[in-house]
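Hi support team,

I'm opening this ticket because the web form for multi-chain structure prediction keeps timing out on my end. I have pasted the exact lines I submitted so you can reproduce it. The total is 378 residues across two entries, so I didn't expect it to be a heavy job. Is there a limit I'm missing, or should I split the entries? Thanks in advance, R.K.
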Amino acid sequence: MNCKEYQEELMLYFGQSELPPELAEHISGCDLCRNFFEELRAMTVDMGEDKFFYPSEIEIEGLTVRINKQIDRVTPADTKVVKPVFTWYKLAGIAASIVLIVGMALLGDFFNKTSPTSTSVELTSSLSYTDGYTLLRDESEYYELSDDQFYILVGDYTSERIYDAAGQLLDDLSEEELKYLEENFKVGDLL
Amino acid sequence: MKELNRDRIQPLVEKAVAGDRNAFSEIVRIMMKPIVALTYRMTQNRDVAFDLAQDTFVAAWQNLSGFRGEAHFDSWLYRIATNKTLNHLASPKSKVVSADDYSSSETLDYATPEKILMRKELKNTVINFMATLPVQQRLVFDLRFYQNLSFGEIAEITGNAEGTAKTNYREAVKKLREYMKKKGWQA
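Hello R.K., no limit was hit. The queue was backed up. Here is the completed structure from your submission:
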């Protein structure tokens, strides 16, 4: 850079307290540019400082009041306002939902216990006999069976064993004993 | 002063953005002085300067959510003040408002009559010189000389390129030298 270019650059630092090293080095060895810079620095004093133009404390007070009043009047359109996450009506809504869900669950359980299709019924099948009827307790419901139906159902696997045992018993009797039994008893009563 | 203000403002800004009015009022108190000084030197009228400062802070409050923290908060305020001031200077009503004598109660700070007179002369010199500059040069000169902002910050505030800000400042300094020489000023 020549001296004119240095001076152009020095003008950018008018009013600044520090110079870049390159400019500081140049003016330390160049009388022309150093004089130019000293002239700028002297003018700086005559331009004063920012604080020379500050309002007084009384004026600041007055303006602050004016600003606050106007801010009170205007709506802070995009101002973020911290709001509570849960309001009373939100909490009430949540509580009502919980009560509703629990209530429905309890009612459902009640109806399931009385319903034949409910899975709460004992899953194991079993048989029981009452007053001439056998109740077949299946996975999901009870079936009422008459005696005849019951014997048909269980006879398949019991009859063979009964007749085998009766046959064996008759084989062990002598002819006289057998004749006595036939004359005095019915064979079906013995079995 | 610039760095001092920034250190004081930073924690207040976070609170103000969250809706804290007291924090914003404190920011107003800190930044009012440089904002009023800027608007006054730009308009050469004290009442107008106060009105523009008031508009600046109210607009800042209304648009706090628009401040994303990418720039310094004071730069953001300067940008609002600058826009308000340039709009005012471009309006017809600014032509009918004459420059006034800025004689505030700061006389308390300068006890002797000589100092008061010197300060008054200096301020008149500055105000009269600023009035000779085109608006853009006046604005760049003010932001650089009095607010100590970098050319990068000035470019952001004015919305111009950094090179344009440098050119404006250089031209303003050249005009200042000429102005002072015409007034018989000697180094």
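A quick check on our side: The mean pLDDT of chain B is 86. Let us know if the file doesn't open in your viewer.
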